[in-house]
Fold these 4 entries.
Entry 1:
Amino acid sequence: MSNNPNDNNDGRVAIVTGSAKGIGKAIALEFAKAGYYVMINDLEQEEDLKYTAEEISKLSGDYNNNTNVAYFIGDVSEEQCSMSLIDETMKRFGRLDVLVNNAAIAEKAAPKKKITITNETGSVANNPQFKQISPFFTLEEYEIADVNLKGMYLCTREAVKKTAIPNDNEASKKRENGIYSIINVSSSYESIPKSEADAYTLSMSGVNPFTSSREEIRTLTKTAALQLAEKGIRVNAILPGLVATEINKNLFENEKKRKEKENQIPFHRIGTPEEIAKIALFLASDDAKYITGSLIYADGGLSLPHSNYFLESEIEKD
């Protein structure tokens, strides 16, 4: 990357979906530090979005006018919402240079009533959370994967409509600047050994809808990169491993479980949102203008194909 993160970024505009908290928030802050105008978005988290917007404003000393940041509340997996997000960004800032597709859901909201099911022995069990009644992939689980992939697709489609440059000589010059970039945030977890067994444990169906959707994002990234290359739009993906975000709060508060997870990571530590954010900033920069269709793993080595790793670790302990 450039020595000065603000080089050539003044006036550029980035959208970061799912940016009220966690990795998305860290990415939005990193882009703001680098001189970008930022549109942040999340689903029904207005207070968190306001707080993030205030943090971004303070970075540039703009405490009152919010000229360098705006926020948009809504579910980007809904077509009208994704269209409005892009339109509002263009109205507010007049251009769009970078789209970071980070928004995702990990599970459907649990119903208020308990679900009563009968287990294999015929006895009745009460389950207070939303769980599989069937051992197969149900419609409810599919909707999780559908929402995650659809939001990314719709935002990409609408952004391309607004930023695609025509096929002429002037466009060729602009392509050399590499200013149009789409960055998808996926996950490294479908690449981890034994992930299928872990998915079975998590979803009780043999399929983990969250990680399944993240796998599909990788395919979308490569397909979009190939289709959009001639328009001068680069498409890449970041695949984080275990990152210290609020969604993993329970893990961090349990020292034993945290240590167990850290021991499974070759680097023996959990990543930070800021580390992921710096990768996103690099992929959006001119330093990455010859990179497209790439999947950048940021997981401390967790996805490396080392089948004997855990066995060797146990032997060393003995």
Entry 2:
Amino acid sequence: MTSLPVRVPLVSQPMGVLESLQTARRNVLEIIPDIATKQPIVSGKTATVRWHMVMDPTALRRVLLEQVEHYPKSDVTKNILEPAIGDSLFVAEGAHWRWQRRAASPVFSHRNVHNLGPVMSLAAERSVDRLAGQTGRAVDMFEDMVATTFDVISDVTFSGDDSVDRDAIHHAIDRYVASTAKMSVMDILGVPTWVPRPGRFFSGNALKQTKRIADKAIDARRTKGPRAVPDLLDLLLEGEDPKTKRQMNTAELRDNLLTFIVAGHETTALTLAWALYLCAFDPDVQDRAREEAQQVLNGDIATADHVPQLPFTRMIIDETLRLYPPAAFLSRTARIHDDLCGRKIQPGDTVTLPVYALHRNSVIWENPDAFDPERFADPKSIDRYAYLPFGNGPRICIGAQFAIQEAVIILATLLSRYRFTRIPGKDPKPVMILTLRPEGGVWLQVDPA
């Protein structure tokens, strides 16, 4: 057994262009130089593109908050995501982003997220039931968490609508990520985004089918009207920009709905899978979390009302998001002359936010590669721009509260019922395609608690 949880091997020697391209295709995080975990900024040039990796909280605040309009998401990001989620909240810029954000923000209010808690509890209970038949055996907990979080996102999106082919949506999204989300050589070389990327042809039919399913569900809901307890689709249909009174049309609703399905499903599954791996890695942490969960839940399934009573479970989630942030590498394009950490930035420069390196930067974090949930005992002591699992500034993830509530409910429920143990030689490998995934799955032995 190793003394530290699994890590990405960062670069210690300069790489040539070809080697960088090959490495980025395999795992984009492996192009991060190890010095990025010790410095505030690292700069370089690949082909015709000047780039800067920024790990300084003050500079990150400037990029994400103070000058956010001048650091839009990079063309690479848009080229990967727009075919799937259109010009939705995740990729839109300027006025088009602002009105969508104003219209969608009330959807994720504390009250609405709390009201969706029973769906999360039901999904946790289903996971408990699945694992009951697999105790004493090795289980891929990543696969189970994918099933669990897809139960949540499909139920809060298409609740009670049996006409929606949820499996088709699930498989289409998985195929899209697998076939298109890997960075293209042309992306890295700065080839214009209108030039087709060959690897992105193959998921076209799956995407079209998914969009047709979503459009049909939206039109059907308009006809039937909202549920007694509004779900995500109801809330989006009712959403209105308070400034312009504009509401989303079917295409805008569909693109944002698919954004929430993609983002709200896989990212939380990843967080839970990595959290279970870390709990197996440190049995003392697991035992403490189990004791908390059993005392609070008293044999029940966790609910939204339990979440404030589970502070240590929440600390595990926070530390998991530090070590294995799902969105581990963000990219922006500078539109102005600027200065970051004393480095001159020019229009057209790529400014990357390697969240993985930021969260493991030794200038910011003590013993940064260690698993220590106690770091988050006092969250106010942590610089807001040193910890970016959900981004920050006006574009902070709109579903962050939803994701945290869901993760705490599911993790507490599972730890109260089961004990998870590592299997020698089967530790996951962190690999980033679109998100930071555990290559090979998260195989743990599951036993009754």
Entry 3:
Amino acid sequence: MRAVSTSTNALDAYRAGVELADAMVDLDPEVIFLFTSVHYDQPEELVEALRDTLSNDKLIIIGTTGDGYYESHGVEEVGAAALGLNSEGKVRWYIDSEPGLRESPGQVTTNLLDRLVEVESGALPTLVFMTSDFRADASLVGEAIERESRFPIIGGMAADDNKMTSCILYCNGEVLQDAVVAVAAFGPLNFDISVSNTLTPIGKPGRVDDAQGTNIIRVDGIHATEFIERETGKPVLQTDRGITSLTIIDPEQSGIRRLRSIVPDFSSSETSLGLFGGIEKGKTVQVCLAEPDMIIREVYERYREQKAQGFKPVGGLVVSCVGRKWLLGKEIEHELNALTSEFGSALPIAGFPSFGEIGPIKLEGQYTRNLFHNMTCITLLIGE
């Protein structure tokens, strides 16, 4: 496997696509993971330029807009980044999409995954990368990927520079919205997935008494906002976005941490809590606070663990919650610095800050079911 990452700050879409493609001509990529900011008025021209310049009818392009992008040299706010892979034909790649996500997120996600399994007469993919429009109940997308846990799925929800209004998904020559897109890899793909999402629990757990979609209405017999104030000692503020989250407590799976970030913009009333993805009635939750020092320390620990296992990456994809970026500011670059400090500054990397992350957790050498996360950094390292 060979990999190349590249980026550009050019704001003319066609020129940006040409610059990305020029850096990957010698690689002749089989698949390109494309991540852009939301500043391109005609994003379809960027994809067109990639295809025109690389002149490969079989080239697969998948990606999304984010709150800026990641590339090996750092985190940027404006422009585009890409990671190209070439397995010399050893890995078979298939891309597909499904529209109608907002109306039926669970069924749409299930339909897409079912088709990917049918591609090679029922053979299971080695790995799937998935991204979707964020303007849907992400927890229903999460339920669908968790049911389909016969193979690892990683990825995340698109983002839009903190505007929370629009996003773009890239699927080969198409520029999509209100959809989910996935690429499946079949064959000998060597990879390792790490998940960083440790937050500090605050106060006592509570039971969700009433929930509707992505809103929690009541917890422990009181309004959801009162529950937060009871446990933290302060009311919910707009500034809590990216700092305050709820962790879902499952005593039967203590090693699995599932977070849902509070998003005051999504709240349906003054006393409910809007979240990035819903939590079912009857679940037990606990308030968690994000601490910058802990977040930074954990990513360095995760990458040291991966290196200690002897994994030798040729490239990597990073999907990290926008809440971590809002909280850390410029120090968000530690998520890349930690990676390159272990595996070298020349490691090709691309990725995006997302409105929700997808990926399994590795416990005792085995991957769990696929999970939907918030306030999480997921890294896919692709090996030789």
Entry 4:
Amino acid sequence: MPRLLPLLLSAALLALSVTAEEKTNVILILADDLGWGEVGAFGQKKIPTPNLDALAASGTRFTQHYSGAPVCAPSRCVLMTGKHLGHAEVRGNRAMEKVDPAKYTEGQHPLSENAFTLAMAFKQAGYHTAAIGKWGLGPVCSTGDPNRKGFDLFFGYNCQAVAHSYYPPYLWRNNEKIILNQNPIPGHAKPVTGDVKLEDWIGQTYAPSLMINEAESFIEAQKSNPFFLYLAFIEPHVSMHPPKASVDKFPADWDTEPYRGQSGYIPHPRPHAGYAAMISDLDSYVGRVIAKLEQQGLTDRTLIIFSSDNGTTHPGPATTHFHIGGADPAFFNSTAGLRGYKGSVYEGGLRVPTIAKLPGKIPANTTNNSPGYFADWFPTLCDATGIPKPENLDGESLWPTLTTGTPLKDRSQPMLWVFPEYGGQLAVRIGPMKLVRQNLKTKNKTPGPWEVYNLDTDPSEATDLASTHPDLIKQAEAILLREVAPNPTFPLPIPNIPQSQN
């Protein structure tokens, strides 16, 4: 028997090695403010996105997928925790340097010590984990620090506000500040009246280049280990800072006037070309990730999910057609006819281009119209990788519909958005029907009425059916009564729901 021990130990180690190499890797790619219609596979005509289109052709394209919230931080909170906005700890964008300037100089409201994240689930299952890009769920060394929320490696912007600049003074590698630009380019500036020159807004070190390099290095370093990589790119969130070479790819006649900064952020001499360049660059990063997987022989066992944290950039002042930061959604048909933009719980603020690919498991070149949203990815990725699911997740696993191609007929979990910002808003989706309520935090304390839309026949939410569906309104209120937990940090008064509930 003693002679057998080394052989048994070797066999056990070999079995563990094989198991590790056979585990499914996961790469979750998140764009920032990418509109529903800004990818070729979802109808974009002017901006080429060949890599995302190829990803869609080799996997499944979701046509009714929604973000967790209509703005950055709460959407990412829903994604990372599997809790919808009725239960999410973070329900709005909250700058911690304004809340506690003595303690924080940057970062957003932190996830609590008790918040359990998707990365923590992967780490407990033996995965190597990394978050590269924009975080926004807690300052460095806070309870929401990405290293305390399950990520072995964090590299990028901890703070959303710092991420407004593509030539920032620094990025973070875990809790170490990495200096990039001695003369950083600010993400915000006053409007200008003279010439607008591209070179005035170009710095030395371009942060997105470092982040995609880091992602490639992580994939190569972990090729023999199961890994979870969260790639939260900053494109196409303004400011518009793309390199000149990227801007020059697009036609000069697209731009007949410069953007002078009248809708905030920084000026740009060619705003249409600049915006297209950011999306084109984002597409190139996706291509580089796919190429690195192929190079390392990881393609067939790596699940790739691509989505966006919310819809395209919202309007600026009424005196200009430029949206915030110089974006022009009308020029690009960025919402593809959907109503609303970032900051709105209408479809244009929430419905996002979403793609999933895993060769041999997810059928190629398929379209799936199952309604789903960010809360669903936690249980879905657990099912896809065979790791244990925590209890009390709000999402529903999309893995059965992803692998069979059969759309979900009825969801067992509700889809809802409880958003205290931009005037206070609600949305609940029940089957094909969507109920919306606006202006819950107005000064005169007169909330807007319920609106009801049939998304099967009216995806642009043009015809309000509230007067003929009082039963649906009662059903939505019952869902909110059951699903909305108190959150004094992000309060929202909901009519007909006791104040202790919200």
